[in-house]
Design a protein that fits this description.
single chain, five-stranded parallel sheet, four-stranded parallel sheet, 10 helices, 17 strands
Length: 460
C-alpha cells in the first residue's frame, strides 16, 4: 500500500505555533504510534512521518508467513486497546470484500494476510487523521540520518540527501525489526535445488515451506543457532491458564518461575488444556518478573532461556506447524543446530557441536532476524551522543513502559524508542498487542507533557 501525502492543515491553526512531533518509521510500530497520537493526544500538533519507502507493510514486524499470513490471530490485532474486537468488526464490514479462503473473517481465532491487516491499519489511520482537523500530518520520503539535542531542549532531526535540519518537540524512533541484508543466489531456472535457510524463527520456517510448496527447492536445510523451531498455536485461541491459581505468590527468580511453570503444566495436563494458556499467563507477569530479576539473572535468561522462550511465544499457525513436521518427517527439511561463521561461495561455514564444517548448497537465503535499527547509523549516533543508552543485556535501547529513553545523563524529554527497539527493557514488546498498548501510553504521556508545558508558558 502506498501512502499519499496529507493535505495542509486548516488555516485556522497557526502552524508555526503547533508542537512538532516526528515519527521515524512507518511500519506497524510507526503507524500505530501515529494512530495513538491522533486518538489519545487531544492537543493540536504537527506530525511528520519519515520513511524512505512510500509503501507500508505493517505485518512484517509481527510475523509474515511465506503465504502472506500474519502470525497473530484476528482477536489480537486491534490497533486500539480500548476496542479489542475492532479488527474482527472491520473484517465483517469494511474488510468483507477482502475475505480470503484461508480465513473466516468472522472467526476471531483465524489468521489473515499481511495485506488485509495493512489495509485495516491504514484505513484506521486515515479515519483518525480525518477526525483531527486541528492536526497537521505530513509524510516525508527521507532517510533520517541524525537526531541531536539543541540548547533550547528541542530535538533537531536531519534527513534527506541535503540533510535538512528540522526542530521537533518530540521524536519517536519506530524503526522496528529488519531482516539482515539477504544473501541469495537464485536457483537455476526450472531446476529445484538444495537451499539453505539461515535462521530458526517464524520467518525462516515460513520461507522454507514456501520454497518447497512453490517448487523452488526440493530440499531445504534450516540452520538454527539454538536448534529450536517455533511451536504451534493452539487449534483455537486460548486465554490464560492462571499459574497464580497455585497457592503462592508469583516467583521473583528464574528458578522459582520454572518450578511454577512445571506445576502449571501438570495442572493443565490434568484439565486437558494446552501449554499455550500457561505461556499467555506467564507473559502477563513478564514485565514485573523482568524488573525484579537481578542483572546476573537477566544475563542467565539471555544465555540459557531466551531461545526456548522465543520458540514458545513466537508460534506458527497450526496448519503451518503441521506442514513443517511433515516436511521434516519425509526429509524435505533438515534442521541443523549450528552458528554461521561465514557465508562462502556455494555454501556456508558453520560452527557445529562437532566442529567447523562447510555446508555446500546451491542457493542460500538469510532469514535471521535482528533489531537492525539498534545497529543503524542513526541509533549508534544517538548512543554515542548520550541521548540513548543500550540496555544492560545489549538487546536494545533502555526505555520505560511508554518507550521514553532512560539510562542517560540527558533527561530524555521528548525522545522515545518504540516497539522492538526496547526489547531488552520490555519483554514481548515485539508483539502486536504490546506495541499497541505502548503507543497509547506514549500518546497519553505526550498529552500530559504538552498540557503541562502550555500551562507553564501561561504562568511564566
Amino acid at each position: 500500500m502506498t501512502l499519499v501525502p496529507a493535505s495542509p492543515s486548516p488555516s485556522s491553526i497557526a502552524i508555526d505555533r503547533l508542537p512538532r512531533i516526528a515519527i521515524v518509521g512507518r511500519g506497524l510500530t510507526g503507524m500505530v504510534t501515529a494512530i495513538a497520537l491522533l486518538k489519545a493526544c487531544r492537543q493540536p500538533f504537527h506530525l511528520v512521518l519519515y520513511d524512505p519507502d512510500p509503501k507500508i507493510e505493517m505485518a512484517g514486524e509481527i510475523g509474515w508467513s511465506g503465504s502472506g499470513l500474519v502470525n497473530s490471530r484476528v482477536r489480537d490485532l486491534s490497533i486500539d486497546p480500548g476496542l479489542p474486537l475492532d479488527f474482527g468488526t472491520w473484517l465483517e464490514t469494511d474488510g468483507a470484500a477482502l475475505s480470503e479462503p484461508q480465513a473466516d473473517s468472522a472467526d476471531l481465532h483465524a489468521f489473515v494476510s499481511g495485506d488485509v491487516f495493512s489495509t485495516y491499519a491504514y484505513q484506521r489511520f486515515a479515519e483518525a487523521h480525518r477526525a483531527r482537523t486541528d492536526v497537521l500530518v505530513q509524510l516525508r520520503q527521507d532517510v533520517v540520518t541524525a537526531v541531536d539535542r539543541k540548547a533550547d531542549g528541542l530535538l533537531r532531526l536531519r534527513a534527506g540527501a541535503g540533510e535538512d535540519s528540522v526542530a521537533f518537540d518530540a521524536v519517536f524512533l519506530a524503526t522496528g525489526y529488519g531482516l539482515r541484508p539477504a544473501s541469495v543466489s537464485a536457483p537455476p531456472a526450472g531446476k529445484p535445488d538444495h537451499v539453505a535457510v539461515l535462521g530458526g524463527g517464524v520467518h525462516a520456517v515460513d520461507r522454507a515451506l514456501h520454497l518447497l510448496s512453490s517448487g523452488a527447492a526440493s530440499h531445504v536445510t534450516l540452520i538454527s543457532a539454538s536448534g529450536f523451531l517455533p511451536q504451534p498455536h493452539a487449534p483455537q485461541g486460548v486465554g490464560a491458564v492462571p499459574t497464580t491459581a497455585i497457592d503462592s505468590p508469583f516467583p521473583k527468580t528464574l528458578r522459582g518461575v520454572f518450578r511454577r511453570l512445571r506445576e502449571a503444566a501438570n495442572h493443565a495436563a490434568e484439565a486437558g488444556t494446552g501449554w499455550q494458556g500457561i505461556m499467555n499467563d506467564f507473559r502477563a507477569h513478564a514485565y514485573g518478573l523482568w524488573q525484579g530479576l537481578s542483572v546476573e539473572e537477566r544475563r542467565r535468561f539471555k544465555r540459557h532461556v531466551k531461545p526456548i522462550y522465543d520458540s514458545h511465544r513466537n508460534r506458527l499457525p497450526l496448519k503451518q506447524y503441521e506442514a513443517l513436521q511433515r516436511a521434516i518427517s519425509v526429509g524435505a527439511i533438515t534442521v541443523r543446530k549450528a552458528r554461521v561463521e561465514q557465508i562462502v561461495p556455494h555454501g556456508v561455514l558453520l560452527s557445529t557441536p562437532a566442529g567447523i564444517e562447510v555446508l555446500a548448497v546451491q542457493s542460500l537465503i538469510d532469514c535471521r532476524l535482528r533489531p537492525a535499527a539498534v545497529d543503524s547509523h542513526l541509533i549508534r549516533g544517538l548512543v554515542r551522543d548520550g541521548l540513548l543508552a543500550r540496555d544492560e543485556l545489549d538487546l536494545g535501547i533502555a526505555v520505560d513502559t511508554a518507550g521514553r529513553a532512560t539510562g542517560t545523563a540527558d533527561d530524555g524529554a521528548g525522545l522515545f524508542a518504540m516497539g522492538p527497539l526496547g526489547l531488552g527493557s520490555l519483554p514481548d514488546i515485539d508483539l502486536a498487542p504490546q506495541i499497541v498498548q505502548q503507543a497509547f501510553w506514549a500518546a497519553r504521556t505526550i498529552e500530559i507533557w504538552l498540557v503541562a508545558r502550555r500551562e507553564a508558558a501561561l504562568t511564566a
